[in-house]
Amino acid sequence: MSFLAEVRRGMRRGKKRLFWLLFPTAFLCTSLREPLPESPPASTLTSTQARAYAEVLNMRPAAARPLLKGADAGSLLVQDCLGITELLVSQDARQYAAAVQAQDKRLALLEKQPAGPLQAYAAAEIRLHQAAAQVVFGHEVQGAWSLRQSYLAMQQVVRRYPQFLPARKTLGMLQFFIGSLPESYRWFLKLLGLPGSVEAGLHNLRLAATQPNDFQLEARLILALLEETYYKKPEAALALVQTLQRQQPQSLLLSYLLISQLKKQHRTDAALVAYRARPTGPDYLPLPYLHHMAADLLLYQGQYAASQRENLWFLQNYQGQHYRKDAYFKLYLATWLSGAAPAAEQYRRRIGSEGRTVLEEDTYAQRFVEDKQPLNARLTRARLQIDGGYYREALLTLDTFHTTATTPLRDRLEEPYRRARALHLLGRPDSARPLYARTIALAGTAPYYFAPQSALQLGYLYQAEGQKKAARTYFQKALSYPRHEYKNSTDTKAKLALKELDE
């Protein structure tokens, strides 16, 4: 059977979500250990191209485009960085065909140019951009093939030009993501023939992040975000983004990353300050997802009307299919918690008919509709307060929740889990630990995320205390649950934590 036929068969098995593990909010195996000298001048962007690339990262296309008149490797590469940024930010399917066609033209022009590290890197990077576009707009088979081509080409660049650091940035990122895939996706690795390695990926990323090159900023950000997400290093990632954003206040990308990091670390008040201080104006790409994030932050604070306004703006101005179910779910929560039952019901109905279920947030929203089990208002408020960093307020809310003989299992699991999270995040692990254990004991094989997340958090607690045997037991426990809303991300984190225990 041909490679493409095998991939198509895998698609029919429902594995589409896999590709989103390789392109996380984002897009945006060799490993030499000796120190690498700086790349030669012929392997770098010109000063004009570097200025254009900086404006791409600032998300100011009008400032970047006039600087990219040439057809050399550097100009073609930055042109494509600009094109993929505009496409993935807008998520406008009407632009997809033209964008892919422009990528093919750039690749054809690169084939006619003299071989060199920048020329080879540009071709492999543009092919990766093409893979991202194909996957985002539902062409998973073509995206798989483009990903394979990009990976193998980038591997060749590193082998042929071991001193060219930008290639190590991209190869390292791909090695890490493929190496961190859950065991259930081994079929994908076998089909693509791509060797993933967390260790080699981190090594290559660190080389690109710690030594001067044209794409060092990008490498530093990717490395910091990976370590924050998978290795529990939130302070380092936030400190880096805060420093860079202070140095470059004109960068919308850095403002977005700052808001995102503050939100992930439950610092709602600071995240809203950063959101309101972000650079705006006609020179910048509209970034609708920022409004969706702001809607979440306002929901955490109980500002329901303001949260609704931000999500409605997002839905009206966003052309993509991802996050739409999540936005309608958050609109449902805002109206339901504010007592507007008719409006809440209208938003609930839209969840099932809008968007796609590729991302975990959208899957969770869709499952809420299909489950048909009403949410508990007290538990929901407590969850939002915890997400927002209002842990003491959440504990007070949880104190008003009482179970009865008719309380659904989901609610009986959620209460101790929420209480454990609040206590854990307040720096009281000894109080959180028995509540996590209680959640696991009550859950059995129930298909909710409370037990696997409790196991993951217990693993982290025991790992921090140096109790490797207990940590390993709980990380393996987290992996053992066959079905729940956040299985992909939970399994990836548990798998990487187990690797770390073996080091």
TrEMBL record:
Keyword flag Transferase: no
**TPR repeat ranges, renumbered to this chain:** 452-485
- Write down the InterPro entries for this protein, in alphabetical order: TPR-like_helical_dom_sf (IPR011990), TPR_rpt (IPR019734)
> Does this entry carry the keyword ATP-binding?
no
Source domain of life is Bacteria
Keywords from UniProt, A to Z, are: TPR repeat
Q: What is this protein called?
A: DUF3808 domain-containing protein
